[in-house]
UniProtKB/TrEMBL annotation:
One of its GO terms (molecular function) is metal ion binding. InterPro entries: G_ENGB_dom, GTP-bd, GTP-bd_ribosome_bio_YsxC, P-loop_NTPase. Gene3D superfamilies: P-loop containing nucleotide triphosphate hydrolases (3.40.50.300). One of its GO terms (biological process) is division septum assembly. The gene is engB. Residues 22-190 form the EngB-type G domain. Signal peptide: none annotated. One of its GO terms (cellular component) is cytosol. Necessary for normal cell division and for the maintenance of normal septation. NCBIfam families: GTPase_YsxC. Pfam families: MMR_HSR1 (PF01926). Its cofactor is Mg(2+). Keywords: Cell cycle, Cell division, GTP-binding, Magnesium, Metal-binding, Nucleotide-binding, Septation. This is Probable GTP-binding protein EngB.
Amino acid sequence: MNFNKVAFERSFGISSQLPPSTLPEVAFAGRSNVGKSSMLNALFGRKSLAKVSQKPGKTSTINFFATDTARFVDLPGYGYARVAKSEKGRWAELIEGYFNQDRNFALVVSLVDIRHEAQQLDLNMIGFLQEAGLPFAVVLTKADKLSKNQQNKQAALLRRQLALPDDVPMLVTSSEKKIGFDNLRKLIEQ
Ligand code: GTP
Ligand code: MG
């Protein structure tokens, strides 16, 4: 795949608007502010392909980006408490609506902040992916915030807490320092 050539396609505010999947899809899911949109930018070496913010709740629609051979999907985050109830419901509809469709899921990248213990909503997400039989990987974000030693400790702790089977890949990344992206690109290409 050519990671140097990517284009924004469209945003969707309701899952029933989503077109059928015509390309294999790589979706980015995780809590609000975990770094989904930043990861897409780092993956493609682009500064503002996807909109990023310090404030959680930035991505409020499903956003499609396309390369020559795949579609990349930036999803709204889950678990942001300080958003209006109506918005929360709409985001949940988007995320669940997307995953419940009959789509060509090539890989779900499940992002988890490397600094924290496993959260209930992450356990729910990963449980869902396993039950649905979707191909997924856990990608730990913001590794630049920890020492190498702490990164290894947290990765082992999170693998245990998330009860990941051995065959589920776990990557340590930093979008800020561009760490782990060769491995992520390899995983996506597989
Ligand atoms: P929502 O769209 O709100 O769900 O958030 P998101 O998961 O898309 O996160 P986003 O990419 O907008 O990043 C949230 C914040 O985390 C921003 O301030 C980013 O600069 C920061 N961030 C993302 N990745 C990293 C990283 O690898 N290291 C550090 N230090 N900060 C990061
Ligand atoms: Mg976002």
